[in-house]
Amino acid sequence: MTAQNPERKIGDPAMNPGDEPYFAAAKEGRLLIKRCNSCGQPHHYPRQLCPFCWSSDVVWSDASGDGEIYTYSVTRRGAGAPYCIAYVALDEGPVVMTNIVDVDLDTVKIGQRVKAVFKTSANGTSIPMFTPSS
């Protein structure tokens, strides 16, 4: 049984102009993605232009916070180890790079259903991460 390092510090995110609504929603326990009004495609990480059609007509949209692990890696050595980094395919479509938390790391597997949880960084910013659904 491998548990996460409880002393691992969560780094502060790099804030880009326009990211404020994303992190404000995370503080409320909501996961936001952007959706393009021109082509209808959802995307993450939120940006000012749609990565599919380059339209600037993009809006914030609530995501369910549910998804499945597409791939992952458990780091067992180094500062803050052990911890798990994963790509999670959200039910809405986008794939997000994230951490898998609050789980025995030896039980993490591809295809596992996960849900968003929100952890606090050193400066108090809520960061979306994921934990197994069941």
UniProtKB/TrEMBL annotation:
Q: Which residues form a coiled coil?
A: none
Q: Where is the ChsH2 rubredoxin-like zinc ribbon domain?
A: 23-58
Which Pfam families does this UniProt record tie to the protein?
OB_ChsH2_C (PF01796), zf-ChsH2 (PF12172)
* Residue ranges of domain ChsH2 C-terminal OB-fold in the record: 60-119
PANTHER family referenced in this protein's UniProt entry, alphabetically: BLR3430 PROTEIN
Q: State the protein's name.
A: DNA-binding protein
Q: Which organism is it from?
A: Caballeronia novacaledonica
